[in-house]
Write a structure and sequence with these properties.
Number of helices of chain B: 4
Radius of gyration of chain B: 16 Å
Largest interface: A-B, 14 and 14 residues
Radius of gyration of chain A: 15 Å
Shape of chain B: globular
Structural class of chain A: alpha+beta
Order of helices and strands of chain B: EEEHEEEHEEHEEEH
Strand content of chain B: 25-35%
Strand order of the largest sheet of chain A: 3-4-5-6
CATH architecture of chain A: 2-Layer Sandwich
Shape of chain A: globular
Number of helices of chain A: 2
Number of domains of chain B: 2
Number of domains of chain A: 1
Structural class of chain B: alpha+beta
Strand order of the largest sheet of chain B: 1-2-8-11-10-9
Number of strands of chain B: 11
CATH class of the largest domain in chain B: Alpha Beta
Distance between the termini of chain B: 17 Å
CATH class of chain A: Alpha Beta
Helix content of chain B: 10-25%
Order of helices and strands of chain A: EEEHEEEH
Number of strands of chain A: 6
Largest sheet of chain B: 6 strands, antiparallel
Largest sheet of chain A: 4 strands, antiparallel
CATH topology of the largest domain in chain B: Gyrase A, domain 2
Oligomer: heterodimer
CATH superfamily of chain A: Folate-binding superfamily
Helix content of chain A: 10-25%
Chain lengths: ~110, ~190
């Protein structure tokens, strides 16, 4: 069972109060991109064993989308942060590096 | 027991705690910039109360105002006053990005009273109902079973709950079953 801290309303929300939104920080392949780039944007998703950045919506609470950094193998939550960003904040990355020294870093 | 602005109960049940469903009450969803001075003035004009802090509810003689999300409030008042209040809010906030909608007839309001009100809710919700996690005056949006709901305690033994009217009958039945006599474990009793 996951418990994620909603950065908008401050509630430690149980997983059943949330709706999952898949991988975070996906960059849209817009006009001018070729078919491979668009296919990658549309369909290709990371499926790591370990550190993962995800979108979640506090659907049975304040209704806001936020981002979470967590480990898919241990369910450890490294932190959550507001969705108004294109990459994870430095304090989240620093915390992950501390917990997972062999982590290769954020790849957008 | 209930707040001054709450209408009389339509139906009630006495089990381990008392469960009552109120007659329709006026409710307005108000969205916009909660930090704006115009918003604070508009809320003051509508229910005579100051802006609530994060996750808090303020209640007075004319109504109540609850913090729903960083850009949303829920106003409570007499059912008859809600349409007029929406017009006034629209006038007060004209020119700014906002939304005021009369949702009175889309909502149901309940009151639970007794020693075990926290435990009745805890039976069906993932929300932490312990007194330090949900103090009196804190407005908690969560779910009961699969149904979205929000609640707050106006004192240690009185809980008020709001949900969609479409699931109001279900909610009343659910609360009555959860509040059955001798049905509370006594874990969160206050």
């Amino acid at each position: 069972m996951l418990i994620l801290h909603c950065p908008y309303c401050g509630i430690h929300a149980d997983e059943t109060e949330l709706a999952p939104g898949g991988e975070a920080h996906i960059r849209r392949a817009g006009p001018g991109s070729d078919d491979t780039e668009f296919e990658n944007y549309m369909f290709a998703r990371k499926n790591p064993k370990g550190v993962h950045f995800e979108r979640w919506r506090h659907v049975h609470g304040c209704g806001k989308w936020f981002h979470a950094a967590r480990a898919t193998d241990t369910l450890e939550v490294f932190g959550t942060y507001p969705a108004q960003t294109t990459e994870p904040p430095e304090e989240i990355l620093a915390h992950i590096r501390k917990r997972r020294p062999d982590w290769k870093g954020f790849q957008g | 027991m209930s707040e001054p602005w709450m209408p009389k109960p339509l139906q009630s049940f006495q089990g381990a705690v008392m469960v009552a469903r109120h007659a329709p009450v006026g409710m307005i969803t108000l969205r916009g910039d909660l930090d704006a001075a115009e918003m604070a003035a508009a809320v003051k004009g509508a229910v005579g109360l100051a802006m609530p802090a994060q996750r808090r509810i303020r209640s007075g003689k004319r109504g109540a105002v609850a913090w729903m999300s960083p850009d949303e409030l829920l106003l409570f008042m007499d059912h008859d006053r809600a349409p007029v209040a929406v017009d006034r809010l629209d006038k007060a906030l004209a020119g700014g990005h906002h939304l005021a909608v009369d949702v009175s007839d889309a909502r149901a309001l309940f009151t639970l009273a007794g020693h075990g009100v926290r435990e009745v809710i805890a039976k069906g919700s993932p929300a932490d109902m312990a007194p330090d996690a949900l103090p009196v005056g804190e407005f908690r949006r969560s779910r009961i079973g699969q149904v979205a709901a929000a609640w707050w305690l106006s004192d240690a033994q009185t809980l008020h709950l709001v949900c969609f009217r479409s699931v109001g009958d279900y909610m009343f039945d659910w609360l009555c079953v959860a509040a059955a006599r001798d049905g509370l474990p006594g874990f969160l009793a206050v």
